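Quick board copy: two proteins, each given as sequence then tokens.
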Amino acid sequence: MQIELYIGDEKKIFVAPFVPVSAKRKFLEIEARAEKREEAPSKQQQLEEDDEIMAILSDIVFKKQFTLKQLYDGASKEYVDQKLAEAVFGIKPKIKKEESEGNNQGE
């Protein structure tokens, strides 16, 4: 798995040779804890949970090759969410076909 982040003005690519099962386990632990709550989480709790979830990428999958702040500052929310889904659930982003592909008949 890889992730591209802008650190400063430079685009950097980080690589993880594999995604450990502990990434999914950590995500499920966070979700299970959230389900046990009787009331809506406070803003502080939401921030802490977001940090824990995003740390799955920075700390578990990519083994601290970049910081949590660099993850937050270096990519869009949509991109980070895609990478998280890829790490936790194995959902790879769909690759758009180039217009030049196909047989010019819409197939």
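And the next:
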Amino acid sequence: MLTALSVSAIAAAATIFYSRRSLCYLRHFQDNDYSQRLFANWVIENGIYDRKGSLIATLAALFLEVTKPGRVITLIVCFIGAAVLIWLGSREVDPRIAGYPILQPTPKARWIYHFGLNLYMIFFLVCVGIVYRISADNDLAAYWLIVIIAIQSSPIWLMIANVFSYHRRA
């Protein structure tokens, strides 16, 4: 029961964090006229990888792995880590109303955002299912490692969603 609560908190926090962070990436993707090549170059040239969310997930995973705390402390650590991820996501500037360039909510942008979010959630749930099946003691540190991988792959989900976009031009 406590493991299910912990995993649910981790999954919800990671999804909320992604939903806010991906809007920032989508702004730059839109600014590059949805060009896969230009966006990939921008990601590589600017070293776009998440530092804060990954640090929180790494600290939570290390704490859980090194200390092997009791079930209640594990639940508390997972909820604190999830709360910090949600807080970091809520501090992201909404690119639809601030920043340069402003994210225009075109049908194509909405499609890419929602389809990318769905791809992210499917990836996350599949990884959670795999860890659940192969983990003998249901080690919660492994779920935090999934968060790191999922957060770092954020731009990829937008690029894949763009490939499947039915909109020819924004």
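Board note added afterward: The radius of gyration is 17 Å.
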